[in-house]
Write a structure and sequence with these properties.
The protein is of the alpha+beta class and about 750 residues long. It contains 12 helices and 40 strands. It is about 15% helix and about 30% strand. It is elongated, with a radius of gyration of 33 Å. Keywords: Membrane, Transmembrane, Transmembrane helix.
Length: about 750
């Protein structure tokens, strides 16, 4: 009965609230109000400083517990102090019956919890992500500031105005129609040849089995080259390849291609053009109501400036391919168009895409790592701009594939491909290429593969970009993950290209210079190239040996270590240990977007600690222009957290004139001497920083860090695991009291006897 009761309280009550918790993350961008990293903190909410659990609201009742384990047997005991806080491994066990109704973003498993914390009950002191990332505002305040509620009227009713409805959607076979420009402008820079080569790879290697594919071409009018047909084998793929265009002519009429399509709700359209069409607005309304998703590919610098309007109306991808001597840039752009079904087990993953100008008689050597999570349906491709080079491919065991093992299509004599049967050998593959042409030429190599097993997700990269505006530059994001787990410690390099400008490479960071450290999202501000227009973004991620590992997903519902009911503690099974796992992989993805001088970015990882009555601050240097270059700092302190947040300029200044700023991304450390502060027991100091660059542009106020001068009690209060809450074992207490009483009685009796004897003697 106890086991059944335990399961019921921990799961039956909380399932719906877990859904609301995760929905609030996804929809409104709020953060957790607990902290696994800092489960306890020193609070000043009471008259004297005390150690409290990181919670919202403050005052959640419960008990700190440490699991003493010997082998597989564990017994909870009281937590001991280690410095100012409890020892590592101490967890907070809440009472299952609470008098509070919030918060869903903290203890969603408590039966009485049905609300978010608001400004009236929010715990601004708690060192959780919600306070750190949202400037100590409550989750309800942030939700009310979202687009969903910002302009909505408050409903004072006991029931919602309408019932919530849910739709159950089921995936179906993917349907994609290629709508390709074959107008006269496609003859420029060999666009038609690059289109055919890139689309060939897309058809032969990227589409999943059972997908439906059709091909439409347009110039002054449109033509259906291949009706919708299901990809069931290699023969169907090759038949589709034969339908790809080879000869360009005529004008550019995008709407003629749109009208020619036979689309259904949920289908995808890949619309590619390199020219302009002033009459494209005529079919925008049809596109809007078609139910199809349109992915646009702008090829070269002269593609229609409003082409992306088709994607914006339908929620499709907005892609851009820079002109090049070989087709690998367009091939990479096509590879970014993957299925949205969520099933990655059949998706093609690009392992490498590299282009280089090779001088006469020189070698180009490329390493193509194939990790153990991929290897099925692997293909390698080499392309050249002038004449075929000498080349060979060597697998990790030393087996070599010569040019005679590769296939060259008669319709595309400047590309050779090798498709492997079975599962490719895991490890480093070496592509060795020598330019035997009399002059320098461009050479590119490409590799792609599918997951080796359906139950083991591959390492993958999801790339996103936020366009620049007057107030901030473009932001580049790359989420590196294996399934739902973030990949940490990877080297992530972004390559940004624009027609008419040299390519720029930028290392993306997940080290605290970005918003959240070690969450698998690598990011960076991009301000190197100037001017508006389209940019192409490619990201490569790789890891080696023990530098790369899998981490735990951040921002998720709280794991319940146990609970207390009627004074008795019920411990749940411990969360399974997550062992670091070595991984290594190359993954490429392509997208595309990017101006003035910008201020330094906000510091989000400021920490403060007390060392022998010296306060030590540490943070990641943000850089002068957002996350680039150097800057200097304004450091402020206060004994009131909200005063520091709301009136930073009026707070007490900290002299940091001897602090020499470091380069962006490096760790800064600064010690504050005791003479600057009166440090007494139970004193809490709050600190915040603003960074200033050499043009006096100032960053936003950082997160607020806490340093505490607090001497905890010498001993922790023991408890009885079996239910006698708040005291030691009753038998031991009775025994101690009895012994003490006996000692007191003996002393008193001895004293009386001595006094009486002495009187008699007198």
């Amino acid at each position: 009965n106890s086991l059944l009761k335990n399961k019921c309280i921990c799961s039956c009550f909380s399932t719906g609230r877990v859904f609301v918790h995760e929905w609030a993350h996804y929809r409104w961008g709020v953060f957790d109000e607990y902290s696994s990293d800092v489960p306890f903190y020193v609070s000043r909410n009471s008259e004297a400083a005390s150690v409290e659990a990181t919670s919202c609201p403050a005052g959640v009742t419960g008990i700190p517990v440490f699991q003493d384990c010997s082998g597989e047997k564990c017994k909870p005991r009281s937590c001991r102090y280690d410095g100012q806080l409890y020892e590592k491994g101490c967890v907070f066990i809440p009472d299952i019956r609470q008098s509070i109704s919030c918060s869903v973003m903290h203890m969603q498993f408590i039966p009485s919890v049905a609300e978010f914390c608001d400004k009236n009950n929010h715990n601004t002191e708690a060192p959780n992500m919600q306070n750190k990332m949202c400037n100590h505002k409550s989750t309800w305040e942030m939700i009310m500031e979202s687009d969903d509620f910002r302009n909505s009227a408050v409903l004072n009713a006991s029931a919602p105005p309408s019932e919530t409805t849910f739709e159950l959607l089921q995936t179906r076979d993917r349907t994609v129609i290629l709508v390709l420009d074959v107008s006269g402008s496609m003859s420029m820079n060999n666009h038609i040849g690059h289109l055919r080569s890139a689309a060939e790879v897309f058809l032969l290697h990227c589409f999943e089995i059972d997908s439906w594919v059709g091909i439409v071409t347009f110039q002054s009018d449109a033509s259906e080259k291949a009706p919708l047909q299901q990809i069931t084998n290699v023969t169907v793929r090759q038949k589709l390849v034969q339908s790809l265009p080879t000869f360009p002519s005529g004008g550019t009429n995008i709407c003629s291609g749109i009208y020619k399509m036979n689309t259904t709700y949920g289908s995808e359209i890949v619309l590619l053009t390199d020219g302009e069409d002033s009459g494209k607005a005529a079919c925008l309304d049809l596109v809007k109501h078609s139910g199809a998703k349109i992915h646009t590919i702008a090829l070269g610098p002269s593609a229609d400036k409003e082409l992306e309007s088709f994607s914006k109306l339908t929620g499709g991808l907005m892609l851009y391919a820079v002109d090049g001597a070989v087709p690998n840039k367009l091939t990479g752009t096509f590879s970014a168009i993957t299925s949205g079904s969520g099933d990655i087990s059949e998706q093609s993953i690009q392992l490498e895409s590299k282009e280089l100008v090779v001088q006469h008689s020189e070698w180009m050597n490329a390493t193509l790592p194939v990790d153990k999570t991929v290897g099925n349906d692997t293909f390698f491709s080499i392309a050249w701009s002038l004449s075929q080079p000498f080349f060979f491919l060597r697998d990790p065991k030393g087996k070599e594939y010569r040019s005679s093992d590769f296939t060259i299509d008669n319709s595309n004599m400047k590309t050779a491909r090798l498709r492997l049967s079975g599962t490719a050998e895991a490890g480093d593959w070496q592509f060795c290429i020598k330019n035997v042409h009399t002059a320098a030429q461009a050479v590119s190599v490409t590799a792609a593969s599918r997951p080796a097993r359906p139950d083991v997700p591959p390492v993958s990269v999801a790339v996103r970009g936020k366009s620049a505006n007057r107030f901030e530059p473009a932001v580049l994001y790359a989420e590196v993950s294996q399934g739902f787990l973030p990949v940490l410690g990877a080297t992530v390099i972004a390559t940004i290209e624009k027609d008419g400008a040299a390519a720029v490479t930028l290392e993306l960071l997940d080290n605290g210079a970005d918003m959240v450290k070690d969450d698998g999202v690598y990011s960076r501000y991009f301000i190197s190239l100037r001017g508006t227009g389209r940019y192409s973004l490619k990201v490569s991620a790789h890891g080696r040996d023990t530098t790369t590992r899998l981490g735990l997903k951040r921002n998720r519902a709280l794991y319940i270590p146990g609970y207390r009911e009627n004074g008795k503690i019920y411990m749940n099974a411990p969360r399974p240990e997550f062992a670091d796992k070595e991984i290594h992989s190359f993954v490429d993805n392509t997208g595309g977007r990017s101006a003035p001088i910008y201020p330094p970015c906000k510091i989000t990882d400021l920490h403060a600690r007390m060392e022998n009555k010296t306060i030590v601050l540490s943070w990641t240097a943000p850089g002068g222009d957002f996350d680039n270059g150097k800057d200097h700092y304004i450091i402020k302190s206060s004994e009131n957290l909200l005063d520091l947040r709301n009136r930073f300029d009026r707070a007490t200044s900290v002299n940091s004139s001897n602090l020499i700023p470091k380069e962006a991304g490096r760790e800064e450390s600064f010690k504050i001497k005791p003479e600057n502060f009166i440090i007494e027991n139970d004193t809490i100091f709050y600190f915040a920083i603003r960074a200033i660059d050499d043009t006096n542009l100032i960053s936003e106020v950082s997160n607020i860090a806490q340093a505490t001068s607090f001497i905890p009690p010498k001993a922790s209060v023991p408890f009885d695991y079996d239910g006698n809450d708040g005291g030691a074992n009753s038998t031991v207490i009775v025994a101690i009291v009895a012994v003490c009483g006996a000692v007191v009685c003996t002393v008193v009796c001895s004293t009386l006897c001595f006094t009486k004897t002495k009187r008699k003697t007198r």
